[in-house]
Amino acid sequence: MNIFLFLATFITSRRGKKMIRFNGYNFNQVRARGARIRWACSTHHRFGCKAAIRTIDDIIVAVNENHEHKALRYVLSQRGRRMIQVNGFTYSLLPSKSRKKRWRCSTHSPNGCHAHVFTLDDLVIAVNGIHEHRPQNVSLNKVLFCDDTSVLR
């Protein structure tokens, strides 16, 4: 039995296409030859990410996890608000009407930290600023484990 079976989930995109979620990253189907399918990281066309998965009859047989970007990890604040965690630091969402979102370091008010993250469609596109503190400890019971990030919007 292959260990990849426990780490991957087949999901459906907003447009109804089959995708794979593996270790926090999404993969789109790019080529099919019979039962063999090649899946590329969903940022492949936009950012040139080289990560890929190969499946045969929906069983993962090969994985290249060399991503050129970071995966998002959603967590809950003490007040139950959605936050993201990148490199051990947590960020709160600032109001926005576009697909591009700006997240401010969650310790901005108490510590005056000016670090922030920009995301586009659940993908980290920029991490700006230097933190003036150590990463926060986020307990595992506050981590959101959800296969459908559209629920979290």
Automatic annotation (TrEMBL):
The protein in question is named Uncharacterized protein
